[in-house]
Amino acid sequence: MSRLVYVLNGPNLNLLGKRQPHIYGHETLADVERDCRALAEELGLQIRFHQSNREYELIDWIHEARETAAGIVINPAAFTHTSVAILDALNTFEGSVIEVHISNVHKREEFRHHSFVSKRADGVIAGFGTQGYLLGLRRVANLLDEKKDSA
């Protein structure tokens, strides 16, 4: 069974650590990737880590994951609230999907309270800072282990 997990990041996350650090913290996306790779190794996972400001690239990576991956950890950023296309792509993926948000979107503007992605996600992590990515990876690993044990 594949233990490959895609970690996908949406628009503006390339500015992590620089953009609104009072909301998103001081860690950069490179820091997040480093931490994810270290934890993935510990959990026996492989990861592909991507970021794009372009909706179609995220969709292409989700399509690619259909063929090879067991899970997706996704921070769709602003696409969370707008992208039916990302939801449709995720609905074609048979593995586990964990939605991650660095900030607690429910304490923010009203428009951020709605997520298209949540309609497909097996779990949603919000408000734990960049640790949310690590929680997401741990959850995917647990789901894979449960699947293996029940097989």
Automatic annotation (TrEMBL):
Please name the InterPro entries in this protein's record.
Answer: DHquinase_II, DHquinase_II_CS, DHquinase_II_sf
Which CDD domains does the UniProt record give? DHQase_II (cd00466)
Output the Pfam families linked to this UniProt entry.
DHquinase_II
* Residues bound to substrate: 75, 81, 88, 102-103, 112
Q: Subunit arrangement?
A: Homododecamer.
Protein name as annotated: 3-dehydroquinate dehydratase
Catalytic residues (positions): 24, 101
Q: Briefly, what is this protein's role?
A: Catalyzes a trans-dehydration via an enolate intermediate.
Q: Which GO terms describe its molecular function?
A: 3-dehydroquinate dehydratase activity
UniProt catalytic activity:
3-dehydroquinate = 3-dehydroshikimate + H2O
**Where does the record place the site Transition state stabilizer?**
19
Protein origin, superkingdom = Bacteria
Q: Which gene encodes it?
A: aroQ
Q: Which UniProt keywords apply?
A: Amino-acid biosynthesis, Aromatic amino acid biosynthesis, Lyase
